[in-house]
């Protein structure tokens, strides 16, 4: 199986040892934690001032990986700058072996220790599969990505089907999956108030208490006896846990249902909803960055942050990243959405579109009635089974799942007599595009 990369450029508290997320610029085991624009922490050394990032050459791709577990590698920033360290080293994915995968996962790290439990270790076949999954959308990896992959906690792997948000292969702390628990994912808690807000949202909605949650942030949810409808359109929440990587750096993680685990060949679309994706408390600089990032957001009401489609006739995946999403305009939005339903032989999954529209009608009905929450920068996660479709007359139902995710910018309304027009506009407009798609597909 191959993948094509397309870019425009348990209990509420786990038994794992808990501790607070280290604060910005606080030393941990002699290292510093750098905090990126989205509020995620990345472990790294105390580094010199920013220097211009140099592109690696083809020759660099074949160089041997550092032997020190990546402790001196540079931390790459989103704007193409590199914060010092060794020269960037890239690893070609197609030559990856199980031996290299073991090395990639951190055997050279000073504090890496083999697990005593066989279930927490990957055999050769699993390691090669993981290597393929990590590299499905990259011809090569940056130093910061390799550094984080070496530090992936023992017994965990990067979430294979993640399309949106921060990911290890991008050099960010991404979602994790625990070996032997395919139905769960572990999402890093964002730094500061955004992380506390998202944890507090889930705590309030599910009526639980964790060491980061603040009940005063969502009092209406805490006091509500009718949260079941909202729970049904979100991933199931299983509490909070603290996970230490192989260097000993600790980070709190939300334990959430992985809605892709029921699918054999999940096709996934992540849409950032709303005409604006910043909340009422956003700094003017943040607002300016978001406006420049994607000017069409206000008119479309949604943005593609990631898309992965399985092609059954060629047995491979096609992936579109957030940079592709930012290149989509009003004129090309229908074409971009159509790609998500292409089978590969010229036909389209109209059965999936009909199922999605039925489910979106339920979302719209809930959003029209709810007047408690403002959902800024919340995403709509759409998944369908890309494998063989049921035969005509087959009672098997088309497999589709849709959930709301990402609540770091969700607020309770000061007034409870208004709809969340911002997010509602996005869902309605996306539904209209699907209706248009069905009309054109039937012609």
Automatic annotation (TrEMBL):
Catalysed conversion reaction: 1D-myo-inositol 1,3,4,6-tetrakisphosphate + ATP = 1D-myo-inositol 1,3,4,5,6-pentakisphosphate + ADP + H(+); 1D-myo-inositol 1,4,5-trisphosphate + 2 ATP = 1D-myo-inositol 1,3,4,5,6-pentakisphosphate + 2 ADP + 2 H(+)
Pfam families referenced in this protein's UniProt entry, alphabetically: IPK
Gene3D superfamilies: Inositol polyphosphate kinase
Keywords noted in UniProt: ATP-binding, Kinase, Nucleotide-binding, Transferase
GO BP terms: inositol phosphate biosynthetic process
Compositional bias ranges of the Polar residues kind: 1-18
EC annotation from Swiss-Prot or TrEMBL: 2.7.-.-
Xref: InterPro entries: IPK, IPK_sf
This protein's GO CC annotations: cytoplasm; nucleus
Sequence similarity: Belongs to the inositol phosphokinase (IPK) family.
Name under which the protein is recorded: Kinase
Native species: Amphimedon queenslandica
Lineage: Eukaryota, Metazoa, Porifera, Demospongiae, Heteroscleromorpha
